[in-house]
Recover the amino acids of this structure.
């Protein structure tokens, strides 16, 4: 399936200049020029929901503005297929699960169907995450360059699933991971590229106070109580129950409210069950608001993040956690678990507070709610940290450099 929905760019490249500087945009143009004539085919498993789709939606139009012919496709899969790949996802994050040979067979069968149905037309194939990873079989027939982009924290993967996927990964020309500690023992080149946020998207751009107030009203929230917010798909790895527990500890001494807002992703079949669990757990506590936010509610998410007094991301595992950069960019103090790619964003006590336990999260939230000046200082530092490292222009540059490196054996690129 090819994505036309995001074919039109929303922001122009020059609009990023005031944020990242002229030289950054010039550098992007130079790198893109060196790639001219190459077609990039990006393949993942969903256009909507989750961090991967979030990034691609904004990145593909920018590639195109730079004159890089990048096109975005998704694989097709049944609900059963996505149940299997969700199990893979959890197992790669280190969760023990039983994965049967029927599960592996279904994965291979759906891969075969996609190999038959999809059109492969690029010079560089840019394949995201495990769901489409086995499409690499096509390389034997058509050659070209293939890059696997892993968004998962694979620092401690389940051996069975990693062993299965590894047979495909080793056929790629290169793999990209989000953090240094995710690197694997592989016979192919590995690059580290952190994900990023788009400062001009509806999710992150500046918005009017009136809009924030109208979103609060819509969801029955009030701005006269401090608000602790976690935005996440309803996924156990985001530990929504742990967030509630921490909030209840804080609530004993501070009058505040909790907002757990999230939606579902088409490639995540578990979310409804998790949402039910969260709703049950929150029942009877009028200070806990569990919001099911429809897809494409970027302005609403933006408003909720801006309305937050403290943003929490208490994930048990996290590839990167875009929600953290989103919050930091809005100058918010963040409490987040020290897992996966999170410590790249949260330098403890400098750009936010890291936590390791429910009690630790409660302690940190309390500290920020009672020290607004310290909270504001962390938020300011956090915004600068994101400006320097996690904006979409940095990621574009890094991807362009990886694509250019594919044709060269040396790691340094001379333009
Ligand atoms: N998000 C959203 N609506 C929701 C929940 C999440 O738009 O209901 C967005 C969130 O703002 C972020 C992305 O989805 O941009 C989630 O990315 P992250 O890396 O935090 O987690 P993932 O879902 O990829 O595990």
């Amino acid at each position: 399936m090819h994505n036309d929905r995001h074919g039109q760019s929303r922001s122009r490249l020059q609009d990023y200049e005031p944020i990242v500087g002229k030289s950054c945009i010039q550098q992007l143009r130079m790198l893109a020029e060196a790639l001219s004539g190459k077609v990039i085919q990006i393949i993942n498993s969903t256009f909507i929901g989750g961090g991967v789709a979030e990034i691609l939606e904004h990145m593909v139009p920018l590639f195109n503005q730079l004159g890089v012919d990048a096109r975005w496709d998704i694989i097709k899969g049944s609900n059963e297929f996505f149940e299997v790949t969700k199990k893979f996802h959890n197992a790669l994050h280190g969760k023990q699960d039983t994965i049967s040979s029927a599960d592996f067979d279904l994965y291979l069968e759906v891969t075969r169907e996609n190999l038959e149905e999809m059109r492969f037309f690029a010079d560089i194939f840019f394949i995201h995450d495990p769901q489409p990873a086995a499409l690499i079989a096509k390389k034997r027939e058509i050659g070209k360059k293939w890059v696997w982009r892993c968004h998962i924290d694979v620092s401690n993967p389940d051996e069975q699933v990693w062993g299965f996927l590894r047979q495909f990964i080793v056929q790629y020309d290169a793999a990209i991971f989000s953090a240094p500690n995710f690197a694997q023992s592989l016979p192919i080149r590995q690059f580290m590229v952190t994900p990023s946020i788009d400062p001009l998207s509806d999710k992150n751009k500046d918005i009017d106070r009136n809009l924030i107030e109208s979103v609060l009203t819509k969801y029955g929230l009030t701005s006269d109580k401090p608000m602790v917010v976690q935005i996440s798909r309803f996924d156990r790895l985001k530990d929504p129950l742990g967030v509630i527990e921490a909030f209840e500890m804080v609530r004993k001494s501070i009058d505040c409210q909790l907002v757990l807002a999230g939606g579902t992703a088409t490639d995540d079949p578990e979310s409804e069950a998790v949402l039910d669990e969260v709703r049950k757990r929150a029942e009877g506590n009028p200070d806990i608001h569990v919001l099911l936010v429809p897809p494409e509610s970027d302005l609403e998410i933006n408003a909720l993040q801006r309305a937050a007094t403290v943003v929490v991301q208490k994930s048990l595992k996290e590839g990167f956690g875009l929600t953290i950069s989103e919050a930091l960019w809005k100058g918010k103090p963040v409490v987040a678990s020290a897992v996966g790619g999170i410590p790249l964003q949260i330098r403890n006590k400098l750009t936010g507070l890291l936590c390791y336990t429910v009690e630790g999260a409660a302690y940190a939230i309390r500290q920020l709610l009672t020290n607004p000046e310290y909270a504001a200082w962390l938020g300011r530092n956090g915004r600068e940290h994101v400006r320097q490292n996690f904006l979409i222009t940095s990621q574009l540059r890094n991807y362009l450099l990886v694509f250019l490196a594919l044709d060269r054996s040396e790691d340094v690129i001379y333009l």
Remarks:
- The domain at 209-389 is CATH 3.40.50.2000 (Rossmann fold).
- The CA atoms of residues 32 and 66 lie 6 Å apart.
- The first strand starts at residue 39 and ends at 44.
